[in-house]
Structure formats: structure tokens, C-alpha cells
Amino acid sequence: MAGVFAQNVIHFGRYLRAKGLEVTPPIGMDLLTAARLLGLDNVRDVRAGFRCLVVTRPDQLPVFDEAFDLFFGRGAPRPPTADAESDQMVQSYLPVLAPEGGSDEEEVRESSEQLGASYSERLGTRDFGDLTPDEISEVRRMIAAMVWRPAEALSRRWLADSRGRRPDMRRTLRNAVGPRSELIELEFRSRKPRRRPMVIVADVSGSMEKYVEMLLYFAHSAPARMGRVETFVFSTRLTRITHELRRRDPAMALRLVAGSVHDWSGGTRIGEALETYNRHWSRRVARGGPIGMIISDGWDRGDPGLLSREMARFSRSVHRTIWLNPLAGREGYSPETRGLKAALPYVDDFLPAARLTDLAGVVRLLESIPATPKPTARRGAWAS
User: Fold this and answer.
1) 169 contacts 132 by C-beta, under 8 angstroms
2) Distance of alpha carbon 325 from alpha carbon 270, whole angstroms
3) With contact defined as beta carbons under 8 Å apart, do 311 and 365 qualify?
4) Contact (Cβ atoms closer than 8 angstroms) between residue 16 and residue 63
5) Where are the alpha helices (DSSP H) in the chain?
6) CA 316, CA 240: separation in Å to the nearest integer?
7) CA angle, corner 226, sides to 225 and 231, nearest 5?
8) β-pair type (188-195, 152-160)
9) Are 349 and 151 in contact (CB under 8 A)?
10) What are phi and psi of 292, to 5 degrees?
11) Which of 230, 279, 293, 340 shows the smallest number of beta carbons within 10 Å?
12) In whole angstroms, what is the distance from residue 261 CA to residue 70 CA?
């Protein structure tokens, strides 16, 4: 009987999600935990516990009661209604509430893995362009919950540090005045660590339409993890969206971005956009050795010579240049477009960005970037 109740809970959650309730995989694991704590002897206790976890508004109570009776009570399926299309998402159900022997720890652990890890892993490997609306909402939450521990940089400020390598003569001479002046103790200092800033330049042209929303969600979460983050988008011209992305609600931030960008889903002119950035914004926002991140598929209609020159200027103004390409993770992909051939000599890391696992790889890269710059001779060593 092991696993039967867990499978029933999985179908129960899917049924409620099809009916409009927000039942995420973590809530599914909470349902299993509640069943283990409440026991399966009293149907009313289980009903009340499940209701506390999934019902957030009074109008959801009839939907919940119908689903609970269908999956765990003695109720039978109702005749087809206007919601029959959503009901078809649940192909079968197991109306079993209390298996003999109850729910042991092994069953709950296996069910948690089915509801959480396997579902997350499946979503993590799905292409952003192939996600359903429900999966898009879940991936957005997963992006917001990603844990970043980016490597710190060294600022120009100095701190007192007994393990430092540079003598602090000011503190040493200050301590020399007093009863211990005959025995001068040498003080040391070290550079103060700080969070490294980032500059993001994202392509919102027509060829990036399937991926730009998720990648902008990723850009929205960056300021909470990195230092100062400046974000620009471009299609035929460059637009700064740093202030719009400062809204706490990512959905509201993206609506503001959509209202402020007038060339959304247009053509692609990467060279002209970088030229605008280098002329008007580089000296304002590229202080402190930021990470430069360009997000584009590389389909450029502009002059490759201009793109090459502006990429060289861009790479000199940042600590490291990262290029995210949604197409780079596809089997057999090779960067053969004129734009990419012109830009890649000035790119340190060329990475895919079409799945959640790709974004996790970008986070791991940011965590591993050293505080000191890479030698210039290493430029162009990109990895697909």
C-alpha cells in the first residue's frame, strides 16, 4: 500500500491547480507532512488540515470540498460541467484515505521527493520557450528563490586586520604613545571586501521573444545578491531600465519595463546599442570593476566591424565579460553568425541561458570569479 496515499495527494494537488488554486510542490509536501502529523484515522482532521494549507479565499471552499470528497471521501465524480476541460488534467484518482498501517516515514520521504525534487528537476531542464503557464509561474518562483553567493571583490578602502600583509603605520604610531611605547607592536591592515557590481545589457528583439521574460526575471533578482546592478535592454536602440527593475514585485517591474521600451521585439543592432552604452553610460555606471553581462542570441543586423570595436571598449571597462545565449545549449550549436564571430574574441565566458539549470550555471560562475582581473592574454577563452 506504500505510495498509494502519496500518489493520491499528487493528483489531488494537480486537480486543485487545474481548478485555479495555487498548489505548488512545497505545499504538496506540506500536505504529506500534515497527514503524517494528524494521522489518517479521522477524516475531519485531515480535511481541516488540508483546508488550512490550500484555501486562501472563501470562494475556494466549494472547490476544495468537491476535490477532497472526490479523492479522499465517499463522494463520486460529478457530471461534466463547463470546467470539464480542466477536469481532464486528472486522468485517474485513487479514493483511498486510510491505508492499513498508516503512513510511515519512508512513504512520506518518497512522496516528498516525488512532489519536490523530481518536479523541480523536470522544470529545471525544460526550455523556457516550451513551458506551460503553470510551469512559467513555478519557474518564476524558483528563479526568485535561487541562492546566490557571488564572490566578493576588494575595494580601495582598508580595514584593520591582524592577519593582513600590509603594515598600518598610522595605527602603529598611534599605539606607540602610552605605557607600551617602548615595545612598539606593528599593526597590519587589508583591503575591505565588497559585493561586486554588475552591468546587464539584454536583447529584447523579436528573436529573443521566447526567452526575454525569464531572463529579465533573472536580472530582477540580481540586485538582491550582487552589488550595484545597472540594467539596459536593446533592440534597435538602448534603453536603461535600472529604475523599473527596482520594484520589489517582479511582475510590476516587467510591466513598467514593457511600457518604457518602445522598440520591443524589433530588429537587432548590438553594435549600435553598445556604442550608445560606451559613449553615454560607461563612465557613469562602470565604476568598481563590474561584471559585464550581455544577453543575446547574436542575430545582428548591424555592422560587424562596429560590433567588434564596441565589444573591445566594453570589455576594457568591466572586470569580466559574460555572454548568455539561449541557443548555445542546443545540440550541435556553433556560433557562426557574423555578430558572434565579431564579439567572441572579447568574451570571457560564453554560456547557454535557455533553462533553469543554465541560470544555475551562471550563478556558479559568479560565485567562482576571483577578485583580481584575468590576464588580458586569456581573453576569448569561452566555453559552450
Assistant:
1) no
2) 13
3) no
4) yes
5) 4-18, 25-38, 43-54, 61-71, 84-87, 105-112, 118-124, 133-144, 169-175, 212-221, 250-260, 270-280, 282-285, 304-316, 338-343, 356-368
6) 21
7) 110
8) antiparallel
9) no
10) -100, 120
11) 279
12) 48
- Listed in sequence order, the residues at least 6 apart from 269 whose beta carbon sits closer than 8 Å to its beta carbon are 234, 235, 236, 237, 300, 301, 302
Which three cell numbers, joined as nine digits, stand for 145? 528563490
Answer yes or no: are the C-beta atoms of 374 and 348 closer than 8 Å. Answer: yes
Q: State which H helix or E strand residue 199 sits in.
A: strand 198-203
Locate cell 518564476: which residue?
140
Element holding 324 (H helix, E strand) = strand 320-325
> Grid coordinates in use for 364?
556558479
Q: Can you tell me the distance from the alpha carbon of 150 to that of 195, in angstroms, rounded to the nearest whole number?
A: 8
E strand or H helix at 334: none
Nearby residues of 33 by Cβ (< 8 Å), 6 or more positions away: 108
C-alpha cell at 334: 556553433
Q: Which three cell numbers stand for residue 109?
A: 520521504
pLDDT of res. 116? 45
Quickly tell me which residue has 463547463 as its cell: 82
In the prediction, which pLDDT does 51 show? 86
SS3 per residue for 336-348: CCHHHHHHHHHCC
Farthest CA pair distance, the chain: 96
Instruction: Tell the residue number behind the cell numbers 566555453, with chain if given.
Output: 383
β-strand pairing of 166-167 with 188-195: antiparallel
Strands in 188-195's sheet, in edge-to-edge order, are: 152-160, 188-195, 166-167
SS3 (DSSP) at 166: strand
**Could you count the other beta carbons within 10 Å of the beta carbon of residue 95?**
14
Q: How far is CA 327 from the centre of its chain?
A: 18
User: Of the candidates 7, 23, 5, which has an alpha carbon nearest to the alpha carbon of residue 15?
Assistant: 23
**Polymer length in residues for the chain:** 384
| Residue entry with cell 600583509 | 165
Whole-prediction pTM value?
0.62
DSSP-derived letter for residue 113 is I
The SS3 call for residue 78 is coil
Average pLDDT per block of 10 residues along the chain, 384 residues long: 65 81 80 79 82 84 84 50 41 38 47 51 84 86 77 71 78 71 73 82 90 90 80 92 89 88 84 94 87 91 92 93 92 88 94 91 84 48 41
